[in-house]
Amino acid sequence: MILVPGWLWRRGPVGRAVGAGLAAGVFFGAFVLVESGSWAGAVVVFVVLSLFQGTRAARRMGRLWPAAEDLDGADRAAVVRATRRGEAVGDPRLAPSVVEYAGALRRAAEEDRTRRRVVLLVTALALALAVYDTLTGSTGEIIASWLVVVVCLADLVWWPRRRARLLAGADRAEASARR
């Protein structure tokens, strides 16, 4: 929910599921291709993760901001864009939606805090695997393993700061909408 950009909110639930699912499928399918060199494996991961992540993301988005379905695509995108940037929404009739979306972002961030320990554990395991692959693995395994470490470290280091800026912007936009 927090990672979903404004332009994706312009679409309906199925369009948001497809957009979020394709992004995850391509990302992880590429990892499989680099690591194993198997196009069949990459396609399987692409299909399975696209369906799973797309469905999961769309359901979560709908659960956290159910009022989004009452807006048309352009209005949803405008609300998301203004809230994420911390700006006042141009149309006063959308101010209540800014307040609702800001609350949805805070709920999503709170739910995500519980996974921090899991990410820390996965990062430690990925680092151990990357070291092992560096000593014994193929070039593809080495590249894929270290890319996983980089992604995990980014999630631990970069993402909390970015999330804090995003939530601060949502607070500014909400305060502006309440005025």
TrEMBL record:
<keyword id="KW-0812">Transmembrane</keyword>
<feature type="transmembrane region" description="Helical">
    <location>
        <begin position="142"/>
        <end position="159"/>
    </location>
</feature>
<keyword id="KW-0472">Membrane</keyword>
<feature type="transmembrane region" description="Helical">
    <location>
        <begin position="20"/>
        <end position="52"/>
    </location>
</feature>
<protein>
    <recommendedName>
        <fullName>Integral membrane protein</fullName>
    </recommendedName>
</protein>
<feature type="transmembrane region" description="Helical">
    <location>
        <begin position="118"/>
        <end position="136"/>
    </location>
</feature>
<keyword id="KW-1133">Transmembrane helix</keyword>
